[in-house]
TrEMBL record, chain A:
Name recorded for this polypeptide: Spermidine/putrescine transport system permease protein
Family the entry assigns: Belongs to the binding-protein-dependent transport system permease family. CysTW subfamily.
Membrane topology field: Multi-pass membrane protein
Regions crossing the membrane: 12-36, 75-94, 106-129, 149-166, 187-208, 239-263
Organism: Neorhizobium huautlense
Compartmental location: Cell membrane
Keyword Ribosomal protein: no
Pfam families from the UniProt entry: BPD_transp_1
TrEMBL record, chain B:
Family annotation (Gene3D superfamilies): MetI-like
UniProt organism field: Neorhizobium huautlense
Pfam families for this protein: BPD_transp_1 (PF00528)
Similarity-based family: Belongs to the binding-protein-dependent transport system permease family. CysTW subfamily.
Protein name (record): Spermidine/putrescine transport system permease protein
Primary residence: membrane
Annotated SUPFAM superfamilies: MetI-like
Membrane topology: Multi-pass membrane protein
Length: 272, 302
């Protein structure tokens, strides 16, 4: 196949793109490096020796509030949010395939959920629970607050997926005698599985990193981002960077695992 | 299939019919969970805020009432107006910069990368940092920009400057830089999505008609990219308008934003005052979004 030679524009934009990627990853790598700071090193370069001192520091309760507990809570909350986001977004996506009264209103409610400032959601849920006499907790009010952030993403993604989804496959399945449940289970679900996993990844990571919405809704126990946010004001040792490194590596593992799963599913589908 | 007798088939069908719900009802059932969750955790809390914004309060408690005091205090204060102006300034700067970066990155990916797999790999490289913690990404600028940070030590070490530059960190510059770092992907993704849907034959037709590549860009691609830019604008503007952590950490407490003002009121338990602020901010943000939505129909662009 004949290919046009690369233009000047390409090289110019390639440089621009490279600088952008460096801009994205550069500061993050500074944190990764500085988390291995020597025992007497400070918050900035140069490295004063290399040690695992600050990682060890993470597990001493006096240095960080409650790293283990807050990590467990955040991971648990992320899983709950992920599960509910996937199921509710899928159902809503299916609902939006047909016209029904109120569909437009519901769609714009989802959009509103995306644009309402997170601190307002946080304040509102906090005050609501207070007035209802309920005790806010990460698994009740915090859980709901996170859903207002992850659900619109899930719904919009499912909306886009079903916009591109040809009904021909379902018609074919129905012609072959499949019930609507069989059609969904064996035709629709395998085709949209990669997108659902993508929604799940969004649900988990958005919740795992969210803190503006948790501010007023977490109750008496902090989630990990709240713990980190608290540390930014009163911790002056590289233990902050060690915590950053650990959570970032965890995020990377989650992302890599999910992408691996999606690639695997696509391969298997391509084979069959 | 062939073993099923006709009577059995009829039986199944009849059973199915008595069991089958009308399609409209199924749609409603499928929409119920989303409606309930957003109703209880979004609509009801916002209504609650609107109600509470008229209440009275002291250092410990709120008292149901109907006062316009909270609004008078909020809107009558010079500090509030300055804070709003400052927030709008951040929103405008970050919007302009992310739009510039976002368009060129998306354009490069969509029109200059030739294979789909390479496009996806490069797009993922841009996406991954956005799935990690915002606070960590914000903090990561401190060792880079600080007084003894990477940039200052590099500049003083090479003799370009004799004194470290003070305004790199804890300044408006740092706030805008960190916000651009945090939010650019929200501009890249929708523009990339729109550009990928442009029919390549349009570009070829323009070229055949004698357009230079610059003319193709400004007369064909940019107008078609507008919906993506509009959606990206909604994301970036609402995120900046709602931001308090970046402003707090990166300005070192020297600048304020509306959300930061709200957060301070909340930590002083002045919920009705914060609620009045929330209502004003919400109206402003929704008006901005409504304005943008007049240009673009989100449902068509997904």
């Amino acid at each position: 196949m004949y290919r046009e030679p690369r233009s000047h524009e390409f090289y110019l934009l390639a440089i621009f793109f490279t600088v952008f990627v460096l801009f994205l990853y550069g500061p993050l790598s500074a944190v990764l490096i500085l988390s291995f700071q020597g025992p007497n090193g400070g918050l900035t370069f140069p490295l004063n020796g290399v040690s695992l001192r600050w990682f060890a520091n993470l597990f001493e309760t006096q240095a960080v509030g409650d790293f283990g507990g807050s990590f467990r809570r955040s991971a648990m909350l992320g899983m709950m949010v992920m599960l509910v986001t996937v199921i509710v977004s899928l159902l809503a996506g299916l609902a939006f395939r047909r016209k029904f009264i109120g569909a437009t209103a519901l769609f714009y409610l989802a959009v509103a959920s995306l644009v309402v400032p997170s601190i307002i959601v946080s304040l509102g849920i906090g005050v609501l629970f207070n007035q209802l006499g309920l005790q806010p907790a990460w698994y009740s009010s915090g859980f709901g607050a996170h859903l207002t952030w992850t659900l619109p993403f899930g719904v919009l993604i499912m909306f886009a997926v079903f916009n591109r989804f040809s009904p021909a496959y379902e018609e074919a399945a129905r012609d072959l005698g499949a019930t609507s449940w069989q059609t969904f289970r064996h035709v629709v679900l395998p085709m949209i599985a990669p997108s659902l996993i993508g929604v799940g990844l969004f649900g988990f990571t958005l919740s795992y990193d969210e803190f503006a919405r948790t501010l007023m809704t977490a109750g008496s126990f902090n989630t990990l981002p709240l713990e980190i946010y608290g540390m930014t004001t009163n911790v002056t040792t590289p233990v902050l960077y060690a915590l950053g490194t650990v959570t970032t590596v965890f995020s990377f593992l989650v992302i890599a695992g999910t992408l691996g799963l999606i690639v695997h599913l696509n391969r298997r589908r391509a084979k069959s | 299939m062939a073993t099923i007798t006709s009577s059995e088939t009829n039986g199944v069908e009849r059973a199915g019919k008595s069991f089958r719900l009308p399609l409209a009802v199924i749609s409603y059932l499928q929409a119920v969970p989303l409606t309930l969750i957003l109703g209880f955790f979004l609509l009801l809390p916002i209504l609650m805020i609107a109600v509470v914004s008229f209440w009275d309060y002291d250092f410990a408690q709120m008292y149901p009432d109907f006062l316009t005091m909270n609004y008078e205090e909020t809107l009558g204060s010079w500090v509030t107006w300055k804070t709003y102006l400052n927030t709008l300034k951040y929103a405008f700067l970050v919007w302009a910069i992310t739009l510039f970066i976002g368009f060129w990155v998306a354009y490069f990916l969509a029109f200059h990368i030739r294979t789909t797999s390479m496009q996806m790999v490069l797009f993922l490289i841009c996406t991954v940092p956005f799935l990690t913690s915002n606070i960590i990404r914000m903090i990561s600028w401190i060792p880079v920009l600080g007084r003894n940070g990477l940039i200052n030590s590099a500049l003083t070490g090479s003799g370009v400057i004799s004194q470290p530059i003070e305004w790199l960190l804890y300044s408006d510059f740092a706030v805008v830089l960190a916000m651009v770092h945090l939010y650019t992907l929200f501009m890249v993704t929708p523009i990339f999505n729109t550009l990928m849907r442009i029919d390549k034959s349009l570009v070829e037709a323009a070229r055949d008609a004698g357009a230079t590549s610059w003319q193709v860009l400004t007369n064909v691609i940019m107008p078609l990219a507008k919906p993506g830019m509009a959606i990206g604008t909604i994301f970036v503007v609402t995120l900046v308008m709602a931001d308090f952590s970046t402003v707090q950490v990166m300005s070192g407490g020297q600048s304020a934003s509306v959300a930061l003002m709200m957060k301070n009121q909340m930590s002083l338990l002045q919920y009705p005052a914060a609620a009045a602020n929330a209502v004003v901010l919400l109206v402003l943000v929704l008006m901005m979004v409504a304005g943008i939505l007049r240009i673009v129909d989100i449902r068509k662009e997904l």
